[in-house]
Amino acid sequence: MPKEYLPKIRRIAINTGGGDAPGLNAVIRAATLAALDRGWEVLGIRRGYMGLLQDEVDGEPGLMDLSDRVRGITHLGGTILGTTARGNLFGLEPRQPDGTWGPTDPSDDIMQRFGELGIDALVAIGGDGSLKIAHRLFLKGLRVVGVPKTIDNDLGATDMTFGFQTAVDVATEAIGRLHSTAEAHQRVMVVQVMGRHTGWIALESGLAGGADVILVPEIPYSVDRIAAKIVERERNRRRFSIIVVAEGARAAGGSPSYVEGTGRYGGIADRLAAEIEAATGKETRTLTLGHIQRGGSPVPYDRNLALRFGAAAVHAIEMGNFGCMVALQGKAVRSVPLGEAVTDIKRVDPMGEVVRTARRLGVSFGD
Ligand code: F6P
């Protein structure tokens, strides 16, 4: 685009929304430094959009000047901006007496505040929910560039999201450690990992960690098939088994397991363990890894991807490429339209090369 048509940018803002993922701070650092390098000001908005509408959030100013706040944060987990809970559209609607969130749509107020503060563009870092919100604001006229984030690695438009490799690392380490204790006691261990809609963490950590059974939402399982695998190992004098299950996995013809009254996935490991124990007579224990998969320092891969995404988001703003999301496609970071980016979920292909490799190595998928 000829230089005279490029947008005049003086000030940008950055926010983080939804569940955290290791690497968020690296994105914030890279986007901030890239913007400062262009002579722009950078504001961090605390807790999604909350800091835009409230002068104070949790006793701190809602907005923070990021120019001197991003040193030494590449390796830090969490987000220095804080984030918002899932299911709470903008993190702002007043709670109703019954505990649900009200139907208030604060997007007009948000647009007004961006105008008042002279913010020329927003880098919105988030998962599918937060990016849908960013897209909505783009349709209202906000200059937005999205940065994809989720440890689940299930956003269709990008080959990889940062945080995923860290989660796989944590899960693989846990699975590896369970081998010796499972073998010592001749037990079956069921490890529950994150993955609501997709089984990427289960597949990659299960394969790397030497699991005997990997259960993913994309391949419904049968307890009989799992029991058959355990019995077969027993016959081969392998008297212990490790099962890795994604939290959103389900039996063929069954439904996923939810934590009662919350709508959150959970409990699949305990449910399975009871069924496996009944079917095989083998003592079966469980481990739910939970948020430890999202905590702590990002592995180098996630840091670098996050840094590249942050820098690319600022480049997109400079080029006037709004309403897009940065994405890894092959080896290159590109930008894709936000509207398309948030519609597709990337699922494990049951016929794909990784699943076929695992099967050839003797891994059962319970089908
Ligand atoms: O989206 C990532 C994810 O890790 C899911 O796999 C999991 O269900 C969810 O976040 C849990 O997040 P929270 O407990 O913060 O709602």
Give the topology:
Elements: E1 11-16, H1 24-37, E2 41-45, H2 50-53, E3 56-57, E4 60-61, E5 63-65, H3 107-116, E6 121-126, H4 128-139, E7 144-148, H5 164-185, E8 188-193, H6 200-209, E9 213-215, H7 223-235, E10 241-246, E11 258-259, E12 264-265, H8 268-280, E13 284-288, H9 300-318, E14 324-329, E15 332-337, H10 338-341, H11 353-360
Parallel strand pairs: 1-2, 1-6, 6-7, 7-14, 8-10, 8-13, 9-10
Antiparallel strand pairs: 2-5, 3-4, 11-12, 14-15
This protein binds 6-O-phosphono-beta-D-fructofuranose (F6P).
Short description:
The chain has about 375 residues and is of the alpha/beta class. The protein is about 35% helix and about 20% strand.
Walk me through the structure.
The model has no long low-confidence stretch (mean pLDDT 93). The protein contains 11 helices and 15 strands. It is elongated and about 75 Å long. It has 2 domains: 3-162 and 298-341, Rossmann fold; 167-294, Rossmann fold (3-Layer(aba) Sandwich). It has helices spanning 24-37, 50-53, 107-116, 128-139, 164-185, 200-209, 223-235, 268-280, 300-318, 338-341, 353-360, and strands at 11-16, 41-45, 56-57, 60-61, 63-65, 121-126, 144-148, 188-193, 213-215, 241-246, 258-259, 264-265, 284-288, 324-329, 332-337. It has 367 residues and is of the alpha/beta class. β3 and β4 form a beta hairpin. α7 (223-235) packs across α8 (268-280). A 7-stranded mixed beta sheet has the order 5-2-1-6-7-14-15, sandwiched between helices. A 4-stranded parallel beta sheet has the order 9-10-8-13, sandwiched between helices. It has a two-stranded antiparallel ribbon with strand order 3-4. The chain starts with 10 loop residues before the first strand and ends in a 7-residue tail after the last helix. The longest helix has 22 residues, at 164-185. The protein binds 6-O-phosphono-beta-D-fructofuranose. 6-O-phosphono-beta-D-fructofuranose is lined by residues 19, 86, 127, 150-152, 194-196, 247, 265, 294.
